[in-house]
Amino acid sequence: MTLQVYRAVRKAAREEVPLLAAGNMTGKQAAKNLADKLPEQYALTHVVYRNGARVPVRVWAEAATLTKSAVAYNAGTLNRARQAGVRQVEVFDGADCGWTSHQDPDKATGTLRSVEEAAEWPIGHPRCRRSFGPRPDAEEPLPVGKTGKGSTLSI
């Protein structure tokens, strides 16, 4: 039964999230639609994570939808940057947000990253507000050490 519910939840999400890309609704509207659909069609009221955390389906739907839309938005920005021949992007993120997670000491905001590196980490965590700004003026490759950390941009 669990596998069936999992597949049903994934199917419902696949139906709602693409509407964001088409511009038919906001992330919050898609999350509400998904959260309404799951209890009605599958009697699902909570989602249990691998670590045992039990969250209401509305909270999960919002986090899942906003996460998927952020990844899609950033992928679109990076694809357009590639098409334009831009190799570097500036990262806009929360002041305390690390590159790969909140705990990562490599803080993301204000750094320059290659388009390829940005594509590897389009967000750092669920509900991440990260975005990228193409920087055609920063064409020199960044000095990347073994840690893969970007350089800090001073404004």
Write the topology of this structure:
Blueprint: H1 2-16, H2 18-21, H3 27-42, E1 46-48, E2 54-56, H4 57-83, E3 88-92, E4 111-114, H5 115-120, E5 131-134, E6 151-152
Quick overview:
The protein has 155 residues and is α+β, with helices and mostly antiparallel strands. The chain is 44% helix and 14% strand.
Describe the overall structure:
- With 155 residues, this protein is of the alpha+beta class.
- The protein is built from 5 helices and 6 strands.
- It has a 4-stranded antiparallel sheet. Strands 1-2 form a two-stranded antiparallel sheet.
- A hairpin with a 5-residue loop joins β1 (46-48) and β2.
- The termini are far apart.
Coarse shape: elongated
Q: Over all CA atoms, what is the radius of gyration?
A: 18 Å
- Give a quick account of the main beta sheet: strands, pairing sense, barrel closure: 4 strands, antiparallel
In terms of DSSP E residues, the strand content is: 5-15%
Kindly state the number of beta strands. 6
- Give the ordered list of helices and strands: HHHEEHEEHEE
User: What would you call the structural class?
Assistant: alpha+beta
* Unreliable residue runs: 144-148
- N- and C-termini, Cα separation: 55 Å
**Could you tell me the mean pLDDT?**
82
Helix content: 40-55%
Count, helices: 5
Strand order of the largest sheet: 5-3-4-6
